[in-house]
Write a structure and sequence with these properties.
The protein is an all-alpha fold and 213 residues long. Helices cover 57% and strands 0% of the residues.
Length: 213
């Protein structure tokens, strides 16, 4: 039975159905369910913010955001976010999507681990990051009532040890290309000039999130 919450549901188009089948066949159950939940948090966040969003594009962005962690789409030299964005771009090119919309989805995926920037961009870009941050970091957790969270998780299970599993999945996907993890240079400058500075730790934030487990 398909899930509907506040009139939101997964898009019923051929493109969305094909994306679902592809992700299910390519990603692990952990990543498939995670990506599906990300769509729900993202779509519901858009409703909360009263923004107009193309749900098909949002769905593709959410479902492909971790595709770069899979063996089939992992390059040896690119960030996994770029690998996922490239996979989504190739997929969208078969459905007559405009280059502008393809670029929007590409950017949403490429920037989903870069906080502080997507929120100022198009809704489809901002909401992919919002959905990821909710599912992984628990950001915005109180804005979803218990019944909503329970309904989504019942449809797309979130294992009790999800936090440790997702950290391990990230590690497995990037350990062979550590050079791609170079990122926020500001933290490097602060660490170089201020011995007391301690950068935020992604894994610590995950483990301390409001999600149970």
């Amino acid at each position: 039975m398909s899930l509907t919450i506040n009139s939101i549901r997964i898009p019923d188009s051929r493109m969305a159905k094909d994306a679902t089948a592809l992700i299910r066949d390519t990603e692990s159950e952990l990543l498939f369910n995670h990506s599906s939940r990300v769509y729900w948090w993202a779509a519901l966040a858009g409703q909360q913010r009263n923004v107009s969003v193309d749900h098909e594009l949002l769905y593709i962005g959410c479902m492909f955001h971790d595709m770069g962690l899979t063996h089939e789409h992992c390059s040896c030299d690119k960030r996994f976010e770029v690998d996922g964005a490239n996979a989504a771009r190739t997929f969208l090119q078969h459905y007559g999507i405009t280059q502008t919309d393809i670029d929007k989805v590409w950017t949403a995926i490429a920037l989903h681990t870069t906080p502080g920037i997507p929120e100022f961009m198009a809704p489809e870009i901002a909401l992919v990051t919002a959905g990821v941050e909710m599912d992984v970091l628990g950001r915005g957790y109180p804005s979803y009532d218990d019944a909503t969270r329970e309904a989504v998780v019942a449809q797309y299970p979130r294992p009790a040890d999800f936090k440790e599993q997702i950290i391990q999945t990230f590690y497995d996907g990037i350990k062979s290309k550590p050079q791609t993890t170079f990122g926020n240079v500001k933290a490097d400058v602060l660490q170089d000039k201020d011995p007391a500075f301690r950068p935020f730790n992604f894994c610590t934030i995950i483990r301390q999130s409001r999600w149970p487990g």
